Each structure stands twice: as structure tokens, then as C-alpha cells.
Amino acid sequence: MKTIIVFGSxxxxxxxxxxxxxxxxxxxxxxxxxxxxxxxxxxxxDEYDLLIIGSPTYEPKxxxxxxxxxxxxxESMKLSGKLAAAFGPGDSAWPDFCTAVEMLEERLRHxxxxxxxxxxxxxxxxEEHEDETLDWTKRLAQAxxxxxxx
Length: 150
Fold this sequence. Notes:
Blueprint: E1 3-7, H1 13-27, E2 32-36, E3 50-54, E4 57-58, E5 62-63, H2 68-74, E6 83-90, H3 99-110, E7 114-115, E8 120-123, H4 130-149
Parallel strand pairs: 1-2, 1-3, 3-6, 6-7, 6-8
Antiparallel strand pairs: 4-5
Helix pairs in contact: 1-4
């Protein structure tokens, strides 16, 4: 199953999460390409079966600034037959905790992708949630394998 992790990251937290997700997928027998959103366009998603997209939430636009062009490109994509999941870090002290993750999920669903697992939102220091992120990723891998097997 060809898999990509696309992330937008400002201070490195989302990139760290993406690395944990890549490690968890590898432990589950799925190799994944990990790409900074600045280095891809949405059209690259056509090449993949499993799409894992992550962004932190920032005011006032909610989606991380580097992710905005990619997010806008997604709107016109046809992702039927693709499996997908969304993730991101946040701080529950802010009123819009992880809104970007919810926006990514909605956009993926709108484009026809099948969300294979609930989103993964981390509150606070990302490194304190490594085990939780690895567990989520292993559940993601299992669900994706089951769905791709039909």
C-alpha cells in the first residue's frame, strides 16, 4: 500500500508527529514517504493509496500557513478509492483546539477519501505523546490493511 505523510510545521511539532507516524507505520510493515507540504502539490496524492495529512492550528486562518495552498488545491481533487487520516498538535488552552485537523478531515471526506480511523490530536508537548501516537498509527495501519484487502 503506497503511503504518504504530508505535514505542515512551523516550530517542528507536526514534523515530529509525522516522524512518529512514519516509525509506527514501519513497525506495522508499511513504508511511507514523509513530505513537508512546502515540497508537494495536492496532485501527488494521485500516486498514493493511503494519505495521512497533518497540520497544527493557528489563528486566524486555523490551517498552518504553509498548508493553506495545499488545502485549497485539495478542494478540487477527486480522492475516491483513497484511504486517509488526519493528525496534528494543539493546545487546549486555545478555544480552537486542533481545528485544522478537523478541517483536513472534512476536506478529505469532501474529496471522496475514506477516513480509516478517528483523527489524532495531541494536546501540549508532542514528545510526551510519542507512545500514544505510535499506538494510533498501529491502529491506523491495521484498519488500512483491512480496508485495502476488501
